[in-house]
Amino acid sequence: MGAREKEREFERLIPLSISAGGDSPKFDSSSSGDSSSAAAAGKQAFAIVIRSWLWKKFMTGCVILLPIAITFYITWCVIHFVDGFFSPVYSQLGINVFGLGFATSIPVIFLVGVFTSSWVGASLFALGEWFIVKMPLMSYIYAASKQISAAISPDESSHAFKEVAIIKHPSRGGYAFGFITSSVVLRRSMGHEELCCVYVPTNHLYLGDIFLINSKDIIRPDLSVRECIEIIISGGMSIPKLLTTMDA
């Protein structure tokens, strides 16, 4: 092999990035910087996707478990409250079984309902109610709680909420659920006008506004009082997809 061929072979082994006048090679730093920034951006995007997925699944679990937890908590509190009436009696007898007082309360409540349905029970109940009404502070508490319990009573004659009403409230084009509690005749110089007293709850069933509305301006949907109460308590989630009026 000649000297010229050896020079050609040596030129092939020299890197292209070596300059003609320098002895050390020059590396391209821009390409390596771009690759590292792209890798960092990819890792950040992947972390955002993972966090979003974890948060979404966590909130889904909360949405599913929250109503169940609230239901069990309220049920547990009611059982504890009712069980506390008769559990001290069993404790005095040396019987400490949880739930026995609650089980005893169920037939007792049933017997109270049967007894107060009779003439003698109704008379004694009215006498006890008269004593409660005469007490200054307890009369207000008893009156409010009685109205709420009368609204969901199975006895149709004792319903505080007579009918379900839909009225135009509060803004133009808006409607609101309400309950017709009573009716009144407004006497004016131009004549008489029949008005209905409509109770519109603003905080579930405990607080609300009272409106006197002409009976002709009230929309009466085909809903029972109990169904409307469920709609209000659930925040409108249990409302049917189609509402019809009584005259439809």
Quick recap of the structure?
By secondary structure, this protein is an alpha+beta fold. Helices cover 54% and strands 17% of the residues.
Brief descriptors of the model:
248 residues, alpha+beta, four-stranded antiparallel β-sheet, 6 helices, 54% helix, flat
Describe the structure.
It is a single chain. With 248 residues, this protein is an alpha+beta fold. 54% of the residues lie in helices and 17% in strands. It is built from 6 helices and 4 strands; from the N terminus they run αααααββββα. A 4-stranded antiparallel beta sheet has the order 1-2-3-4, covered by helices on one side. Strand 1 and strand 2 form a beta hairpin. Helix 2 packs across helix 3 and helix 3 packs across helix 4. About 3% of the residues have low confidence.
Write the layout of secondary structure elements.
Layout: H1 3-13, H2 29-92, H3 100-117, H4 119-134, H5 136-151, E1 163-168, E2 175-188, E3 191-203, E4 207-214, H6 225-233
Antiparallel strand pairs: 1-2, 2-3, 3-4
Helix pairs in contact: 2-3, 3-4
